[in-house]
Amino acid sequence: MKDENCIFCKIANGEIPSTTVYEDDDFRVILDLGPASRGHALILPKEHFADVCALDEAIAAKVLPLGAKIGSAMKRSLGCAGFNLVQNNGEAAGQTVFHFHMHVIPRYEDGPVIAGWTPGKASPEELAQVAQEIKKGL
Ligand code: 5GP
Ligand code: ZN
User: Fold this and answer.
1) Which one of the ligands is nearest to 4 CA?
2) Active-site residue among 40, 48, 101, 103?
3) Pairing state of beta strands 41-45 and 102-107?
4) Domain annotation covers residue 97
5) Is 2 domain-assigned?
6) CATH label of the domain that carries residue 100
C-alpha cells in the first residue's frame, strides 16, 4: 500500500526523482539529501510502512541483507573503513520521515563520530528490574 501524502512513497516509486544507487521490486536505495558522510544512503521499501513495528515480515527479512550489500559496495568503491546501519522509530528516537527507512552511513578513518552515545552505568539489580519490565511487554 502507498500513502499519497508520503514523500518517501513518491520517491521510492519514482514519482519524485532521487539519486538512486540500487532498485529492485521491493526497494529503492537513494542518497540522503543531508548526508552525515559521503555516500550516506537510505533504503526505502516501495510499500508504505510507518516504522519497523509496521513492517511486513517478508520485507523486513530483506532489509539487513540489502544493508550489507550496499555497505559492502561502499567499502569496495568509496573506500570507507566501515558503515553504520541506523534505523529510527518514533519522533523521540529521531525519526523525521514516517515511512520506514534504514540509513547506510559510510564511516571513514578519522571521520567524525556519527552514531554514538555516552555509556551509562547500571547495577545488576537495575538490569534485572528493567529486564522484568521489558518481558512484561512481550
Ligand atoms: P530519519 O530522521 O527519519 O531517520 O531520517 C530521514 C532522513 O531523510 C534524513 O537523513 C533526511 O536528510 C532525509 N531526507 C528527508 N527528506 C528527503 C528527501 O526528500 N530526499 C532525500 N534524498 N532525503 C531526504
Ligand atoms: Zn510512504
Assistant:
1) 2
2) 101
3) antiparallel
4) yes
5) no
6) 3.30.428.10
